[in-house]
Write a structure and sequence with these properties.
The two termini are 26 Å apart. The relative contact order is 0.16. The longest helix is centred in the first third of the chain and has 20 residues. A hairpin with a 5-residue loop joins strand 12 and strand 13. The protein has 2 domains: 133 residues, 3-Layer(aba) Sandwich (Trna Endonuclease, Chain: A, domain 1), CATH 3.40.1350; 120 residues, no CATH class. It contains 6 helices and 17 strands. By secondary structure, it is an alpha+beta fold.
Length: 288
């Protein structure tokens, strides 16, 4: 919810949450810097960042960014929502499996992040979409193929465990259900070679036009005037998966991640559901 309406929602939610925290014995600071959350509450060793959420804020990118910002400053996060739909979206993102689209047998399916994937030859990975409409991307870990795959220099892609599973999961990128790239684990996302993807694109520094080249041999197949022309020709940038340990800057187990956040729903200034961490001994007053 960008614009004045979203700003008003965030301001009202911050005021209501700050008042509740103050009533529970927290000292509440209201930082003026836009680099800080709108309120930070302190009580003894507890430090809580108040993060109000308008409906459009309940996305993986926003949630993981605000959670990571708090963890970097030794704070937990109190997410504050006005409606049940926003609260449900937050719970869905942070519940089991936290910050993942899915998890099965230790292998993860990731949400999509806002970033693109830089490739070693310069520019970013892309694919050519088939058919009308935007393609659907998915990034997931799997055990196949077991043999050699594209890997970062520090990754042993050939290692297998006693059961014959690769020690480093294969990271598969699928477009509309079809695999287009396979890497040796999430660490191999760091500037993979061009050949790992069907195509790559780069803006020429001289004429400012995009050059789209094949990944396998580097041959330029299209010269285009901008993103609109690139999309009209069917080429779509490959989104970077939102890998929790990369986005947060650390690896956290499920329990540690669960301890890092709480959620309260405030409707028209009244607490409708949930509660603040440490704001009383009644466990039923908490969201989780």
């Amino acid at each position: 919810m960008p614009g004045p309406l979203g700003d008003a929602t965030r301001r009202d939610l911050t005021d209501a949450a700050a008042a509740r925290l103050a009533a529970d014995g927290f000292a509440v600071d209201r930082p003026e810097s836009g680099a800080e959350p709108p309120a930070v509450a302190t009580r003894g060793d507890e430090r809580i960042a108040v993060e109000p959420l308008a409906p459009d804020d309940a996305t993986p990118t926003v949630i993981v960014s605000r959670l990571g910002h708090a963890l970097d400053r030794d704070r937990s996060v109190l997410f504050v929502a006005r409606d049940d739909a926003t609260a449900a979206a937050v719970r869905d993102l942070l519940a089991d499996p936290p910050l993942l689209a899915a998890r099965r047998d230790g292998r993860r399916t990731f949400h999509l992040g806002p970033d693109r994937i830089p490739v070693a030859g310069g520019g970013y990975a892309c694919v050519r979409a088939q058919g009308l409409g935007d393609p659907t991307f998915a990034w997931r870990e799997t055990d196949t193929p077991v043999g050699p795959v594209t890997a970062d220099s520090g990754v042993d892609a050939a290692a297998v465990d006693e059961a014959g599973r690769p020690v480093v999961p294969r990271l598969v990128c699928e477009v509309d259900g079809a695999p287009v790239a396979v890497l040796a684990g999430v660490e191999s996302l760091r500037t993979p070679p061009d050949a790992a993807f069907p195509f790559a694109y780069r803006r020429d520094p001289d004429d400012k036009r995009f050059r789209v080249r094949r990944g396998d041999d580097g041959a330029v197949v299209e010269t285009l005037g901008g993103f609109g022309a690139m999309r009209d020709a069917g080429y779509v940038p490959v989104p970077m998966p939102l890998v929790p340990e990369h986005a947060l800057g650390r690896s956290l187990g499920d329990d540690a991640l669960a301890a890092a956040w709480d959620l309260v729903v405030i409707d028209d200034g009244a607490d409708a559901a949930g509660g603040t961490r440490g704001a009383g001994d009644d466990a039923g007053d908490r969201d989780r």
